[in-house]
């Protein structure tokens, strides 16, 4: 509770300083409009369909995140536990991993156009790597004694994977997905800037073209709030499903 | 009494290093045997061989089903006490009697992080017992516990053994623990059994024997063997 009061006070303080320096002419209010104007622009955006943009962006991001995470976990388990798959896929994945995910967007537009599938593919591609590498490290870090114990209890390969390897790697996998969530927000923004007819990135791009800096900041704040909310929601769901995990 | 375990000419090699050298010994059914020795003498390796986790040359004849209790990582942190105990059981079997035996019935829905060190070790042993293991191999099971908890755990282990008649082979650094719990102590040094010490106390035992002159003398003898 005390922490929440402090966080609320810090936000209010930042808003007050921002309002003062912007209205007081210390900086150009046309370039850095005060929060009161940003709030009013946000209200206007809500009337112009901002919620629809939020829903579109979130559904694209959610689909890409889900796809990238599932593939990352599956391939991570395979490269982490199956020597043949590791030897086969590791060189290829290590070549692709350093590639900046935004660099693939022009190619993805050529392949998929500017529809939802292009955005989902770009996000899934970007999310895949942090989830994969974390899962791979996680399954390699499972203490040998957990595996020995499972083997002594006569656990099958599937039971060992499901009940020992996966939960033992979960802290790493979760770290990978949280990293993936942050990257997914970058990707949704960039891919919607690169070509879209709806979504938060599109909204920011339109505001830029019409030089509505108040609207740009309002949409950016919505994007930032969505990012923080998504991460916290994810942490809460994971904690509800796995009460033994200690997450912050 | 028949043998639960017979080991004859056991050798274990890692690369060019011979870890266990021509070990031979037997353990009778229902007997409690301690293995003491310096770090690196091969105690844990011996338990791993007997549990079937390491390859070896020589002859190991197991007449009972082994179950290994590790010092660390003994139970899975993501499973509750009841789920941990049920892990080694067949589908549909009820862990209730093992929860009762370990005195953890009230804590069956707790996770290991919510248990004390002693409770965790009791859950670990219950997990192995629930798997129908009749030869308990314990690797420094109480090494991480404080003196008071350790003493309580000793009494509990003797009580469980009394009720179940299980054969126990355990590794320890603690000479007092070896003398209080075991019928025999094998002293391992550099991969060889250098002494087999018969503990001069009958079971059931009371903790007061620790204050007897005979216990003191036995402790002195074993300490000298380990220092040499």
Give an overview in words.
The complex is a heterodimer of chains A (248) and B (228). Chain A has ten helices and no strands. Chain A is 81% helix and 0% strand. Chain A is mainly α and 248 residues long. The mean pLDDT of chain A is 90. Chain A folds into two domains: 1-32; 40-241, Orthogonal Bundle (MetI-like fold). The two termini of chain A are 16 Å apart. With 228 residues, chain B is of the alpha/beta class. Chain B has helices at residues 43-50, 81-87, 96-102, 117-130, 147-164, 175-181, 213-227, and strands at residues 3-14, 17-28, 32-37, 57-62, 66-69, 135-139, 167-172, 184-189, 192-198. In chain B, the strands form two sheets. Chain B has a six-stranded mixed beta sheet, sandwiched between helices. Chain B has a three-stranded antiparallel beta sheet with strand order 2-1-4, with helices on one face. Chain B has two domains: 3-65 and 134-227, 3-Layer(aba) Sandwich (Rossmann fold), CATH 3.40.50.300; 75-133, no CATH class. Chain A binds chain B through residues 143, 145-146, 148-155, 163-164, 167-168, 170, 242-246, and chain B through 48, 51-53, 66-68, 70, 72-74, 76-79, 87-88, 111-113, 127, 131.
CATH class category name of the largest domain in chain B:
Alpha Beta
Mean pLDDT of chain A: 90
Mean pLDDT of chain B: 90
Helix content bin of chain B: 25-40%
Strand order of the largest sheet of chain B: 5-6-7-3-8-9
Provide the β-strand percentage band of chain B: 25-35%
Oligomer: heterodimer
CATH architecture of the largest domain in chain B: 3-Layer(aba) Sandwich
CATH-defined fold name of the largest domain in chain B = Rossmann fold
- Please give the largest β-sheet of chain B: 6 strands, mixed
Distance between the termini of chain A: 16 Å
Broad structural category of chain A: mainly alpha
Describe the main β-sheet of chain A briefly.
Answer: none
Gyration radius from CA atoms of chain B, angstroms: 17 Å
Rg of chain A to the nearest angstrom? 22 Å
Return the CATH topology of the largest domain in chain A: MetI-like fold
Q: What's the total helix number of chain B?
A: 7
């Amino acid at each position: 509770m005390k922490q929440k009061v402090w966080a609320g006070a810090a936000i209010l303080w930042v808003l007050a300083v921002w309002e003062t320096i912007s209205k007081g002419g210390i900086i150009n209010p046309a370039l850095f409009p005060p929060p009161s104007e940003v709030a009013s622009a946000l209200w206007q955006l809500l009337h112009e369909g901002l919620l629809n943009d939020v829903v579109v962006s979130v559904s694209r991001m959610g689909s890409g995140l889900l796809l990238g995470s599932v593939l990352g976990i599956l391939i991570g388990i395979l490269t982490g536990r199956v020597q043949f798959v590791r030897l086969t896929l590791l060189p290829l994945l290590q070549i692709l991993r350093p590639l900046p995910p935004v660099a693939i967007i022009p190619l993805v537009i050529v392949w998929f156009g500017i529809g939802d599938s292009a955005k989902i593919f770009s996000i899934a591609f970007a999310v895949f790597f942090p989830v994969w590498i974390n899962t791979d490290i996680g399954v390699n870090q499972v203490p040998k004694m957990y595996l020995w114990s499972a083997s002594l209890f006569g656990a099958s390969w599937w039971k060992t994977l499901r009940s020992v390897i996966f939960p033992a790697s979960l802290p790493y996998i979760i770290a990978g997905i949280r990293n993936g969530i942050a990257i997914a927000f970058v990707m949704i923004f960039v891919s919607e800037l690169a070509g879209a007819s709806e979504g938060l990135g599109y909204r920011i791009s339109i505001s830029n073209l019409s030089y509505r800096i108040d609207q740009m900041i309002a949409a950016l704040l919505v994007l930032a709030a969505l990012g923080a909310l998504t991460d916290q929601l994810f942490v809460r769901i994971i904690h509800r499903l796995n009460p033994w995990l200690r997450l912050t | 009494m028949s043998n639960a375990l017979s080991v004859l000419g056991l050798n274990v090699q890692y690369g060019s290093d011979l870890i266990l050298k021509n070990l031979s010994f037997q353990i009778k059914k229902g007997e409690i045997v301690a293995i003491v020795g310096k770090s690196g003498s091969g105690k844990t390796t011996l338990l791993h061989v007997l549990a079937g986790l390491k390859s070896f040359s020589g002859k190991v004849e197991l007449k009972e089903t082994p179950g290994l209790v590790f010092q660390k990582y003994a139970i899975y942190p993501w499973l509750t006490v009841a789920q941990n105990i049920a892990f080694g059981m067949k589908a549909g079997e009820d862990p209730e009697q093992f929860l009762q035996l370990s005195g953890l019935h009230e804590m069956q829905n707790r996770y290991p992080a919510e248990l004390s060190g002693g409770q965790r070790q009791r859950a670990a042993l219950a997990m192995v017992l629930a798997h129908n293991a009749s030869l308990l191999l314990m690797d420094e099971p109480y090494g991480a516990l404080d003196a008071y908890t350790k003493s309580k755990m000793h009494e509990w282990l003797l009580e469980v053994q009394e009720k179940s008649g299980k054969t126990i082979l355990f590794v320890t650094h603690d000479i007092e623990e070896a003398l209080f719990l075991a019928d025999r102590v094998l002293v391992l040094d550099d991969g060889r059994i250098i002494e087999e010490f018969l503990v001069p106390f009958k079971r059931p035992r009371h903790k007061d024997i620790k204050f007897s002159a005979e216990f003191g003398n036995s402790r002195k003898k074993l300490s000298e063997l380990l220092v040499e």
